[in-house]
Structure formats: C-alpha cells, structure tokens
Amino acid sequence: MIKRMIFPLLLGLAGCAILMSLGLWQVQRLDWKETMLAEIDARIAAAPVAVPATPDPQADRFLPVTATGTIGAERLRILVSQKKIGAGYRIISPFMTEDGRTILLDRGILPIQAELPAPPAGPVTVQGNLHWPDEVDDYTPEPDLGRDIWFARDVPRMADALGTEPVLLVLRASEPASPAITPLPVSRAGIPNDHLSYAVTWFSLAVIWFGMTVFLLWRIRQRTV
C-alpha cells in the first residue's frame, strides 16, 4: 500500500509547492506594482516645470509641466468612452509655445454630439503631464480620415498629422479654460494591478490540489484495506 501511495504523494507535494511558489511570486509582484504606482502618483502630482528641450519618452513620462502659448485651430478627434458618461472625442490640438515650439495638446473630452468651439484667441497657460500612451496594437483600426476619427493616441503619427514635435501634453488645467471640453488628466487608472487576484487564484489552486491529493491517497488506502 505504501509503495502505491508514494508517487501520488510526491506528485501532490510537487504540485502544491509549484502553485504556492507562483502565489508568493504574485505577492512579490503586488508589492513591486504598488511601490511603482505610488511613485507614479507622486510624480504626477509634483510641482510643474517647463517642458524639457528634448523630452525622453521614458525618463519624462508623466512629468508635470506648464507652458504658455496659443492653441491652433487644427485638431484631431480620438474616439473614447467613459464609464457612466458614454462616448466622446479626445481633442488633440497643436500648441505653439512662447519660445517657438509646437507640441501636441490633449485638451480633454468633448461630448460626441457637441460642436467644437474655436480655441481661445489669445495666449493660454496650460498645466498637465507629458505622456506617450501605449494605446496602439494589432487590433487598433486605422484612423477614419474621411470621418475625421482616430481610435488611439499614436504620438508620432499625430505629430506628423499636425506638424508638431512628438511630444504630448495632457491637459490638467488651463487659463482661460474651454468650458465645452472637459480635461482628462493623466492618472494611474489605466495601469493594471491584478496581482492580488492572481495570488488568490494560485493559492486557491494549491488548496484544491492539496485536497485532491488527500482524497486520492484516501481512495488508495480504502482499496487496499
């Protein structure tokens, strides 16, 4: 009887060890992700600085900045949807700064049926965060240029379309403001943090595997008595 139980016992112990190690790994990943998110929150909320001369998509991601300039009349419309609000368009416009640069300005969301008002005629002071969103994948449709609708923020491509630097400033506040357009500031909301649920899943599977092992050993013992 003991010989017949050795292999199931070893298999059960090995399976439990593997599943528990995967659960512990997810706990470690959870701690790393929460530390990273806290750093992102602190970076987003820091005091704004001038737009760097040569922003780096990695080092300057989420960098809070401020600038004064004029908003161009051209714009791109990015189709988006918000929970409990519905569909709308992110409005991306060229922003000509006082020092002669032209960058992209994500002004926020406009309701899908609303008319886009003309941009302010004079200088505008904006505050927000630099961002290079990773929204384009193999399933993202091509922009529908006939209907003037884009489906993702592709910074290099938007810069080519509007003739700007490949730098996107996501608006948090402006003076004067555009009442028809609601800013959608940068936040960590789009960064997934599912490690706790993954850890619970692996630990649950380990408990189930242990229970199945105990049941199998009990069945083997019953058949041999």
Overview of the structural elements:
The longest helix has 43 residues, at 2-44. The chain folds into two domains: 2-40 and 193-224; 63-185, OB fold (Dihydrolipoamide Acetyltransferase, E2P). Strand 4 and strand 5 (102-111) form a beta hairpin. It has a five-stranded mixed β-barrel with strand order 2-4-5-7-6. With 225 residues, the chain is an alpha+beta fold. It has helices spanning 2-44, 155-162, 195-224; strands spanning 49-50, 64-71, 76-82, 86-97, 102-111, 124-130, 168-175. Helices cover 36% and strands 24% of the residues. Helix 1 runs antiparallel to helix 3.
Any low-confidence stretches, pLDDT <50, length ≥5? none
Which CATH top level class of the largest domain fits? Mainly Beta
CATH architecture of the largest domain: Beta Barrel
Q: Main beta sheet: strand number and arrangement?
A: 5 strands, mixed, barrel
Share of helix, binned: 25-40%
Major sheet: order of its strands? 2-4-5-7-6
Strand fraction: 15-25%
Rg, alpha carbons = 26 Å
Measured distance between first and last alpha carbons = 9 Å
Number of strands: 7
> What class, by secondary structure content?
alpha+beta
Oligomer: single chain
Shape: elongated
Give the overall average pLDDT: 89
| Secondary-structure element order, N to C | HEEEEEEHEH
Keywords: Cell membrane, Membrane, Transmembrane, Transmembrane helix
Membrane topology: Multi-pass membrane protein
Protein name: SURF1-like protein
InterPro entries: Surf1/Shy1, Surf1/Surf4
